[in-house]
Amino acid sequence: MAITIILDAGHGGYDNGASFQGRKEKDDALRVTLAVGQQLEDAGYNVLYTRTTDRYDSPVEKAQIANRSGADYFISFHRNSGITPNTYNGTQALVYEADTEAARLGESINDELVKFGFKDLGVDERPGLVVLRRTKMPAVLMELGFINNEGDNQLFDQRFDEMVDAIVDGIEGALPLDEPAGRYGVQVGLYRYESNAEYMEEQLEDQGYSAEVRWEDPYYAVVVGEEPTLEGAAGLQAQLRQDGYDTLVVKL
Fold first, then answer.
1. Residue 170: what are its φ and ψ, rounded to 5°?
2. Which pLDDT score is estimated for 228?
3. Is-above-0.70 flag for pTM?
4. Do 41 and 86 belong to one domain?
């Protein structure tokens, strides 16, 4: 089934997060969030965002945005920071509670980032973090290296695309898409007799649509198209309705 993930770019607006020599955590977080989101969309996931611009929402508001979205998973991206520059480094996954689905997701992402080149700081419980405590779905906060460590910044900047690949590999490893593309169609009729369904199929094909008759006990259903997303199916549905058909989006 389709998986919906809401991605959160940490901080934003007047909240810069951690900073180092003019570098701002909010900017790094947004950059990686948008890149990861694009790859996940290309892979077939449904992706939502708490922000796509330099906007501030409080942690409570971020959790509320996620909860209203109906997403299945929440992933927040941040950069860590130490008191003294170049003292600490590494990647870490933060979750509300260990031995949960969120923890397994965080571990999968963290493991791929370690393979990529970051030091392993593991998966840690942080029940006090609002975006982990107030979200209703499994939630992970990823610390993508230390913003005041030159080595971590070098990995982040010079191998950015590889880092994004590692994050996406971790997500796909923990949350595989079970179904191939082409999961939605548009039903244009139910018939008790197969001959009537076949007549409708021919009519649709004469108009340039790809249609098929499917047995949906006790009826024959005429279904148009095979779309990988609900959005694609909705577009097809709108076209069919414009042509005068009564329609229903169905899962194939």
1. -65, -40
2. 76
3. yes
4. yes
